[in-house]
Design brief:
With 191 residues, the protein is α/β, with parallel strands linked by helices. The protein contains six helices and six strands; from the N terminus they run E-H-E-H-E-H-E-H-E-H-E-H. The protein is globular, with a radius of gyration of 15 Å.
Length: 191
C-alpha cells in the first residue's frame, strides 16, 4: 500500500516526522507553498496518484481537505485520513474581504478556506465510499488558545463518509496531533 502525506498550510513534510518513521519507506509527500492555489496543488496531487495502483492519503489540517477532494475524484485512493482538518472552514479566512485591497496579506491557499468557499463547502456535500478516519484535536489550535470551532467533532460530522467513516477525538492541540503515538495504530488497524 502506498501512502501519500499532505501537510497543512504553512507547514512541511516534517509535520509527519513521527508518523512517517512508522510507515513504509516508499511513502510520498504532496508538498506545497502558501502562495500556491488550492487548484494547483490539487492537480499536482492527481498527477502523483497515476503512478500507484492503491493509495492511502493522509492529510493534516488543509492537507485533509486536499485528501478528501482527491479521494472523491480518484479511484486509486482506497483509504483516507484527515487529521485536525477544518472542514467547517477557518475563521481567519473571513478576513479576506476587509484585506482585499492589501495585496499578499493572506496566502493564496488561505483565501480558499472561508466556510462558504467551495473548497470547504464542497466536502460537506459530497459522499465518498472508501474507509475514512477523522482525527479531531480537542485541545485547540495552539497551547493556551481554545479551539476556534472549526476543528471540532461537529465539523467532522458534517462530512458524508457513510458507515465506513470513523472519528477519533484525541487529547492534543492542532500541531501536536500529527506527532501522537496513537495515529499509526489507528490508521493501520485492519490494513
Amino acid at each position: 500500500m502506498k501512502y501519500i502525506l499532505i501537510h497543512g498550510l504553512g507547514a512541511s513534510k516534517l509535520s509527519f516526522k513521527s508518523l512517517a518513521r512508522q510507515l513504509p519507506p516508499y511513502t510520498s509527500y504532496l508538498e506545497y507553498e502558501p502562495n500556491e492555489t488550492f487548484d494547483e496543488v490539487f492537480l499536482r496531487g492527481q498527477g502523483m496518484l497515476e503512478d500507484y495502483p492503491e493509495v492511502t492519503v493522509i492529510g493534516h489540517s488543509l492537507g485533509g481537505i486536499l485528501a478528501w477532494h482527491l479521494a472523491k475524484t480518484h479511484k486509486r485512493i482506497v483509504k483516507g485520513v484527515s487529521i485536525a482538518t477544518p472542514f467547517g472552514g477557518f475563521s481567519i479566512a473571513s478576513l479576506r474581504l476587509p484585506l482585499f485591497f492589501i495585496p499578499s496579506i493572506l496566502p493564496n491557499m488561505l483565501m480558499s478556506l472561508d466556510r462558504n468557499d467551495w473548497v470547504c463547502r464542497h466536502p460537506r456535500n459530497m459522499k465518498i465510499d472508501i474507509p475514512w478516519i477523522n482525527f479531531v484535536a480537542n485541545k485547540g489550535m495552539t497551547p493556551g488558545y481554545s479551539n476556534d470551532g472549526v476543528l471540532t467533532t461537529k465539523s467532522q460530522d458534517e462530512l458524508k463518509g457513510g458507515e465506513k467513516t470513523l472519528t477519533y477525538v484525541l487529547p492534543y492541540n492542532h500541531y501536536e496531533i500529527p506527532h501522537c503515538d496513537e495515529l499509526f495504530n489507528l490508521i493501520t488497524n485492519g490494513d
